[in-house]
Amino acid sequence: NAGVTQTPKFRVLKTGQSMTLLCAQDMNHEYMYWYRQDPGMGLRLIHYSVGEGTTAKGEVPDGYNVSRLKKQNFLLGLESAAPSQTSVYFCASSRGLPTYEQYFGPGTRLTVT
Amino acid sequence: GENVEQHPSTLSVQEGDSAVIKCTYSDSASNYFPWYKQELGKRPQLIIDIRSNVGEKKDQRIAVTLNKTAKHFSLHITETQPEDSAVYFCAAGPLGKLQFGAGTQVVVTP
Q1: Contact B46/B89 with Cβ under 8 angstroms?
Q2: Cβ(A102)–Cβ(A33) under 8 Å?
Q3: What angle do CA B36, B41, B46 make, to 5 degrees?
Q4: Lower CB count within 10 Å: N or C terminus of chain A?
Q5: B43 to A43: CB separation less than 8 angstroms, yes or no
Q6: Where do the DSSP E strands lie in chain A?
Q7: Contact, B109 vs B17, CB < 8 A?
Q8: CA-based angle A104:A109:A110, to the nearest 5?
Q9: Each residue of B30-78: pLDDT tens digit?
């Protein structure tokens, strides 16, 4: 099993450009999450999904949109990138009750200039 | 919402000594408290977790304690080794909405 994978690994955007980050998991997990990690701030939840076709806002959702059209995929979109969105983005998944453990992907380093 | 505070932000220990990291949380509804280890440039990986109906859990050199009344939980690493050097994150929340602490940089010196 590949576990949780993310594409791309690195990306540089200019302010105002758009892009989509793809997260895929092959563990048949119900729950999927998008986090951003900034120095000194830990991981902050952007959006999450509790099942195919569902999404919900996390702690820092502004400027991002998500979609979960297929159970195994969770897409994170930036419609108009801003320098404040420069960060490392991690996707994670978990099986759901009664298991709580989240498995993380390798991360995507995004720079917005 | 949940607010998780983690201390200290950096911790330097001699190899063989113990390391303790403490976290506090604010939301009484939180029922899951994991600890993640993140090495430089790598993804966070779960090292131990505890649920709200348990006060203490141990796995070899790692232990976690939870005090629900005081809303704090701690990670204890005994007999530290150089490979324990990493950033450690605590988290708290209900299923699906974890709030993470800011992290503790642990450096184990030989």
Answers
A1: no
A2: yes
A3: 15
A4: N
A5: no
A6: 4-7, 10-13, 19-25, 31-37, 43-49, 56-57, 65-67, 73-78, 87-94, 103-104, 108-112
A7: no
A8: 130
A9: 999 999 999 999 999 999 999 988 899 999 999 999 999 999 999 999 9
Instruction: Say whether B95 and A96 touch across the interface (CB within 8 A).
Output: yes
What is the pLDDT at residue A82?
Answer: 97
Sign of the four-CA dihedral A95, B47, B20, B106:
negative
Cβ–Cβ gap A104/B43 under 8 Å: yes
DSSP code of residue A69: S
pLDDT at residue A41 tops 90: no
Contacts across the A-B interface (CB distance below 8 Å):
54
User: Using H for helix, E for strand and C for coil, what is the string for chain B?
Assistant: CCCCEEECCEEEEECCCCEEEEEECCCCCCCEEEEEEECCCCCCEEEEEEECCCCEEEECCEEEEEECCCCEEEEEECCCCHHHCEEEEEEEECCCCCEECCCEEEEEEC
- Does position A2 have pLDDT exceeding 90, yes or no? no
Which residues on chain B are in Cβ contact (under 8 Å) with A31? 95-96
A26 touches chain B (CB under 8 A): no
